[in-house]
Automatic annotation (TrEMBL):
Function description: Mitochondrial electroneutral antiporter that exports citrate from the mitochondria into the cytosol in exchange for malate. Also able to mediate the exchange of citrate for isocitrate, phosphoenolpyruvate, cis-aconitate and to a lesser extent trans-aconitate, maleate and succinate. In the cytoplasm, citrate plays important roles in fatty acid and sterol synthesis, regulation of glycolysis, protein acetylation, and other physiopathological processes.
Catalytic activity: D-threo-isocitrate(in) + citrate(out) = D-threo-isocitrate(out) + citrate(in); maleate(in) + citrate(out) = maleate(out) + citrate(in); citrate(out) + succinate(in) = citrate(in) + succinate(out); citrate(out) + (S)-malate(in) = citrate(in) + (S)-malate(out)
GO MF terms, alphabetically ordered: citrate secondary active transmembrane transporter activity
Family designation: Belongs to the mitochondrial carrier (TC 2.A.29) family.
UniProt superkingdom: Eukaryota
Protein localization: Mitochondrion membrane
Name of the protein in question: Solute carrier family 25 member 1
Cellular-component GO terms for this entry: mitochondrial membrane
InterPro entries membership: MCP_dom_sf, MCP_transmembrane, TXTP-like
Intervals holding Solcar repeats: 22-110, 121-207, 217-302
Amino acid sequence: IQLPLKPRSVAVGFVLVCLLHNISTSLFCAGGIAGGIEICITFPTEYVKTQLQLDERANPPRYRSIGHCVRLTIQEHGVKGLYRGLSSLLYGSIPKSAVRFGMFEFLSNIAKDSNGKLDNKRSLLCGLGAGVAEAVLVVCPMETIKVKFIHDQSSSNPKYKGFFQGVREIVREQGLRGTYQGLTATVLKQGSNQAIRFFVMTSLRNWYLGDNPHKKMNPFITATFGATAGAASVFGNTPLDVIKTRMQGLEAHKYKNTLDCAYQILKKEGLLAFYKGTVPRLGRVCLDVAIVFVIYEEVVNVLNKVWKTA
């Protein structure tokens, strides 16, 4: 797929989303801090998930299990090896969070009924829009770099020494399009991700609040609903995540397109291959979504109080 946006267009689009949503500096910082903490806590599970998804049966597979992947990585690279590719996610955490929640709230403000309530079906569409926006603006280049870094570590002669050197190498060899590999799969994954998560979260919130929109939701309830939404997205779209990972790996040239990638996985590795990395992804995503929703809700509550007293 051709890269649809130039860097300047991406930056302008991102700024427009932020302006339309009137996101404050505090919200940017809170989103970045929440995303950074969550990633640092859960990234080893993301690393293991990605390695298992890249490990093709036809090679034969290098890792026998999750535990074997962890042990082998630590033996060869130390504990820090489990954090390979972390920097690409850290650098993208702030804009990703801002675009996701900013676009969702922007769309939900349009979709709400006359009583100011967002129903479950409309939240699905708003989540889909938020996921597509974050995929194009932030997630695709961020994920492509992360996958390449993790895949590079498994090669006999790693060539990426650090984040900026690695990005320079990718752009030098493949152009800017090299950071947008697997865009179709990423859009499908992120769109379905956020559609499922916001749909489940909105459904649970509407059920909990009932006829009292002013009923308070404590952080524990928000975290529980967030973890449930995260789990639903994992079981709902892990096959797309596997395809996306393969399309962004160092051997993506083997696939003609996203459909060809899916066909080859099914033909050579079977249906279960589409659920590689489900367990580590489940642990990371549940914690990820729970933390992000709790932080976001608490920051919104604080900002609302500040605006009322200002």
